[in-house]
Amino acid sequence: MGITKTALFTSEENELAIVLKALGHPARIAIMNYLTKMNECICGDLVNELPLAQPTISQHLKELKNAGLIQGTIEGTSICYCINPDGFEKVKSFFDVLTISIQTKHKSCC
Amino acid sequence: MGITKTALFTSEENELAIVLKALGHPARIAIMNYLTKMNECICGDLVNELPLAQPTISQHLKELKNAGLIQGTIEGTSICYCINPDGFEKVKSFFDVLTISIQTKHKSCC
DNA sequence: CTAATTAATCGTAATATTGCAATATACAAA
DNA sequence: TTTGTATATTGCAATATTACGATTAATTAG
To answer: Can you give the residue ranges of every domain in chain A?
Structure first.
């Protein structure tokens, strides 16, 4: 992108944006959906499941991990990935506040 | 970015990614938070509130509108923006399914 | 009509993202 | 040690995003 001025926003806004940005890609949504369905998986499972090359999947996994949305544990030769519940705390409260606002205040605006 | 292969994913994955990507920027989170607090606003309000130039804010508003997250109505010389509840349907169900999965299945994985 | 106000659009520079081939790393088995 | 398996990293081309100055468009006030 361009010069994203993270310094000009609150850390809450920045942190939330990082998590939502990590989810803002179809491949990463697909990974999260797969993890939701299967509970856990290794990189190779996703390579078989998704129409992307192994390095690309690995990169997407890294971004999801950096955002705190998944966690990986070494298990012999492979790495077992699963959802990290902590990553969704911020997102959950953001949408909770939003939902309440919509339900109460959003009677008839523009 | 690069060559985002939207054609290779389901339309659900793509649509959800569009909405979450739109929310994946601190300025747009700030706009949503401001709208949550104030219920409605015009572009000029945000220009005063956020440390960004008017064309930049206008651009962010356009993206939020394209993603179906806000709506704008012409009101004289200005345009009144407010949250569009419809935009959150997909996101809500995505997180609902995820939350249930975390609560039930995520007992002890990797 | 003219000036003022508000917001969108255009053009463009700076930077970030995506995807993959090639390669590297790490570990287990033979 | 060598081989095979699983995943991460590097490097790079193609493309997308962000930000803003300058301009335009649309509406209202005088």
So the answer is: 13-104
Kindly report the CATH class assigned to B11-104: mainly alpha
Q: What is the pLDDT of residue B62?
A: 98
| CATH fold of A13-104 | Arc Repressor Mutant, subunit A (1.10.10)
Sign for the CA dihedral angle at B75, B81, B85, B90 comes to positive
Closest CA to A35 of A21, A56, A49: A49
B40, two tokens: 């409605």
For residues B18 and B20, give the distance between their C-alpha atoms in angstroms, rounded to a whole number: 6
C-beta atoms of B24 and A27 within 8 A = no
pLDDT in tens, B61-108: 999 999 999 999 998 889 999 999 999 999 999 999 999 998 887 555
As given in the structure block, the two tokens for residue B89 are 């349907």
pLDDT tens column, A14-72: 999 999 999 999 999 999 999 999 999 999 999 999 999 999 999 999 999 999 999 99
Straight-line distance from CA A51 to C1' C21, in Å? 16
Nearest to A61 by CA among A77, A72, A50, A45: A72
B74 touches strand D (CB under 7 A): yes
